Amino acid sequence: MARGALPTKPPKNWWLIGGVTAFLLAMTWWSAEGIGFSLIELMCNITGGGRLLAESWPPDFSYLPRLAEPFLETLNIAIIGTVVGGVLSVPVSVLAARNLTLGRVIWFGDRNFMNILRTLPDLFWAMLFATAVGFGPVAGALALSVFTIAVISKLWSESLESIDMGLPEAVRAVGGTWLQMLKFGAIPQAMQTYVSYALYAFELNVRASMVLGLVGAGGIGMILETQRANFEYERVALIVLVVLVAVLIIEEISEAIRRRLA
Fold it and tell me: What single DSSP character describes residue 7?
């Protein structure tokens, strides 16, 4: 190839592209048949959605002062769930990292423990804890703690597996213990990603805490379910708007912190 000439693009494999497209279309059609999806019924019932939106607008802003206490409760649930779950996720993440774990048996057990936490949804944990400790914010905080462990441990264990093992091995070579190897060699390398994942988990927990309230786990979600059951759609719209604004603000703050850490 002559100097300065642009590299030629490899020819497209149209057979492969067509085959993948046909497969995706076939799977989509098969899935739609499986759930009984009908485009005609959807178009016929879409007027019901439009009527619901009309009944929800404008939001009932006179109800806003009554949302202060349940919204603060929602934030409290999210904060407790993030802090408790974030702390407990550290040993779970470390033992799930192949290069840092104490043994294959411990790694295998910890990995399966993480899989169980991720398999069961946060609503299940909320219902479980609501049955165990009663309906209210405590059940929501416990459920989000488990949810946070599942989120952070999965992501951070993979980050720990990709660190440079030169420094941890040097700590062990001079007689350092396993805990000293973690403290001085491994964890500092991945601390920035841990903070990023913790902030991400907090954003998720603010959203999830509203959903958990639907099953009696406290917070603004309980108010949302009450107003929905009473067909107070203007108040439902207000609650959704409040949570949306809060989530956007939290995302901006988290993004600013991530940029400072980068």
Answer: P
CATH number at residue 185: 1.10.3720.10
For 245-254, the pLDDT digits (tens) are 887 888 788 7
Domain co-membership, 66 together with 191: yes
pTM of the full structure: 0.73
Residue 51 belongs to domain spanning: 14-55
11: its two tokens: 């020819």
Q: How many alpha carbons lie under 13 Å from residue 49 in its C-beta half-sphere? A: 6
Domain match, 20 and 91 both: no
Close Cβ partners of 18 (under 8 Å, ≥ 6 residues apart) = none
pLDDT in tens, 122-145: 778 878 887 877 777 788 888 888
User: Looking at the domain assignment, is residue 3 inside a domain?
Assistant: no
Averaged pLDDT for residues 187-216: 81
DSSP conformation letters of 19-74: HHHHHHHHHHHHHHHHHT--HHHHHHHHHHHHHHHHHH-S--GGGGGGGHHHHHHH
